[in-house]
């Protein structure tokens, strides 16, 4: 009975976290959907991208098991 209660508490906590995160996920998906090829092309021409762009592309490269340098990131775009 104790294990069942602990499991239920963990599930409820996870559900709350999910409900909190879903609006941010939906907003991120809408933002991605608003991008077009011109937006991506604009980023490619940077010889040194803004720090936030570099950070995001490094994260994507890590997730895709790719090199994290800017030249490799531009190829991924």
Write a short abstract of this structure.
This protein has 77 residues and is mainly alpha-helical. It is 78% helix and 0% strand.
Give structural notes:
The structure is a single chain. The chain is an all-alpha fold. It folds into 2 domains: 1-34; 36-77, no CATH class. The protein is built from 4 helices and no strands. The chain is elongated, with a radius of gyration of 19 Å.
Please describe the structure with a list of short key phrases separated by commas or semicolons.
77 residues; elongated; single chain; 78% helix; 0% strand; mainly alpha; 2 domains; 4 helices
**What can be said about the biggest beta sheet?**
none
Radius of gyration: 19 Å
The backbone outline, from C-alpha atoms, is elongated
Overall pLDDT metric: 94
**Number of β-strand runs:** 0
**Helix fraction by DSSP (H/I, runs of at least 4):** over 70%
User: pLDDT below 50 for ≥5 consecutive residues: which ranges?
Assistant: none
Strand content: under 5%
Oligomer: single chain
Structurally, how many domains make up the residues? 2
Distance between the amino and carboxyl termini: 52 Å
Count of DSSP helices?
A: 4
Structural class, from helix and strand content?
A: mainly alpha
The helix/strand series, from N terminus to C terminus, equals: HHHH
